[in-house]
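Hey, quick one: can you model this chain's 3D structure?
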Amino acid sequence: MVAEVRVAVVGGHGKTGRAVGAALTHRGDAAVPLGRADWPHLAEAMAGCDAAYLVAPNLHPDEPAYVSAAIDAARTAGVGRVVLHSVASPYAPAMPHHLGKAAAEDVVRRSGLAWSILQPGAYLQNLDLTGKVRIAYRGDAPFGFADLADVGEAAAVVLTEPGHEGATYELASRGTTVAELAAEAGAELEVVSPEEWAATDGAGLDARVRDWLLAMFAYYDAHGLPVGTLPLRTLLGR
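Sure thing. Here's the predicted structure for all 238 residues.
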């Protein structure tokens, strides 16, 4: 009988952390979800875990520092294996939050621990296809979209099976466009200007967050965010 793997999921109460935890539980392993309340005693909360999955809060202002603190806690707790949740195309200088993830990847690679890095594309679940789909970039921009459940399952594989140490995997479930997804779902697609988005959807956001999202929309409009699907299919065996 294979021994249960115990995984500390840092950021375990968010949608990504919950998906990873569900996939681990489905495999018969144990997820220990850790959140903001655990930070003052993070090393203690990680004690007894075999591995850690690190998910920073969305658009964190200093992701390298966040990841460095989590790595220090893992090291203190004797956790020798870490997997970082990053993003596809992390070194994209036009997108500040992607650059933060690129720097966080460097922290993990220099940690001295056994590590792996996952780089998912944009989540399919970020698009509400039940009504009007409203975006501030062109609808035909190419994307490699990742299904949240697929990402969780891939994370569980990498965390619990051998052979993934030192690996970096881009993850996408499907290559398509927002326009194609909306058409398939019978949803209306509304493309607005960045200025209109900033004055409406983005009006209540912190200025830094709004500026970072506007930079992301400009990048998407120019380049999309294409991601290959082969690594995810290979990890999941389908």
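One thing worth noting: The chain has a mean pLDDT of 96.
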